[in-house]
Amino acid sequence: MQRRTFLSLLAAPLVLQNLRHSRKKNSDPQATSRYIYSQALRRSRTDGWNKLSMGPLMGHIGELFLGTPYVGGTLEGDGPEICRVDLTGLDCVTFFENVLDISRVIKKGKSSWDDLVNEITFTRYRNGTLGDYTSRLHYTSEWMEDNVKKNVVRDISKEIDGDLFPIRVNFMSQNPRYYRPLKEDSILVSRMAEIERTLGTTTRYLIPKERIESVETKLQTGDIIAIATSKSGLDYAHTGLIIRDGDTARIMHASSQKKKVILDGRISDYVNGVKSHTGISVVRPLEV
After folding, report:
1. Would you give the DSSP letter of residue 128?
2. Which residues contact 281 (CB under 8 A, 6 or more apart)?
3. Cα separation of 40 and 157, whole Å?
4. Are 220 and 244 in contact (CB under 8 A)?
5. Does pLDDT of 10 surpass 70?
6. φ and ψ at 47, to 5 degrees?
7. Would you list the domain boundaries of the chain?
8. CB neighbourhood size of 81 (10 A)
9. Side-chain half-sphere exposure of 170, counting CA atoms within 13 A
10. Are 208 and 279 spatial neighbours (Cβ–Cβ below 8 Å)?
11. Is 60 exceeded by the pLDDT of residue 11?
12. What is the pLDDT of residue 28?
């Protein structure tokens, strides 16, 4: 994204500024979410973003969410698993997920709220099918694997100098106390353990943190970045989107530290700034 275009877009999030702060006082976040969604579609039409390819479109949609509060746990709730969508508060996964799926709805020429829910269901759940809690793609490595198979994204990690990245995950099955459905149902814990074992047979690639700077020129606006961690039992600790600012590849993400969606600095600086971060995997959205 050229700097002139980037600077002109700094005003875009102001359209939704009042909505972002309505979470605390609005008793119906879904109604606000529907309005945020409708405004994103309107901006896409009026500014011609719908005619762009997926990457630049995702960049524009992502910038509309700058300043949105960081809120974790919005996918959890009482009762059976359902596809929950809340645009009034985002974590690192729901940020890139919603930006991706709003963009996919736009590129398909659709517009209803159900269209968005259907798109999110398709990318959020294994094989695009909502079942019980374990049908959700909880681990980022499986999200990438499944959405590559569904032709939503293409994994470019290997072609941009990635090394083989063994996946060894067991955090969820070993810590069911942190996940209400697992805590309440031992059968789901067993299913999750089997999913984790299967993930151990998949092939992923990782650009080590010391080589990220050398591959930044190969990253494009809209690329989805997964940041790997050295923490035991986990694959990736954080996610975000690449925004090209001239010759620089920056990361846009929902920051738990800043408590909102922000446009941060260079991806290499960000990853190298956290000791437990070990590198990145990159998937690129495919055209719809």
Report:
1. G
2. 141, 144, 155, 157, 162, 165, 204, 205, 206, 207, 225, 226, 228, 236
3. 30
4. yes
5. no
6. -100, 0
7. 3-285
8. 17
9. 7
10. yes
11. no
12. 84
Given the structure tokens 């090209």, which residue do they identify? Answer: 244
Please report the pLDDT score of residue 29 as a whole number. Answer: 86
> Per this entry, what is the length of the chain?
288
E strands, 40-195, are 153-155, 163-165
pLDDT band per the 50, 70, 90 thresholds, residue 17: low
162, amino acid identity: G
How far apart, in whole angstroms, are the C-alpha atoms of residue 162 and residue 146? 19
Q: What one-letter code names the amino acid at 165? A: F
* CB neighbour burial string for 176-193, b if at least 16 within 10 angstroms, e if fewer: beebebbeeeeebbebbb
pLDDT digits (tens, 9 = 90+) for 204-239: 999 999 999 999 999 999 999 999 999 999 999 999
User: What is the identity of the amino acid at 103?
Assistant: S
3-285 maps to CATH 1.10.3670.10: yes
Contact 214, 153 (CB under 8 A): no
Phi, psi (5° rounding) for residue 197? -65, -40
- Residue located via tokens 């814990």: 189
Residues 149-175: tens digit of each pLDDT? 999 999 999 999 999 999 999 999 999
* Exposed / middle / buried, residue 171 (Cβ in 10 Å: 0-12, 13-18, 19+): middle
Determine what percent of the chain falls in helix, strand and coil, rounding each to the nearest 5.
Answer: 45, 20, 35
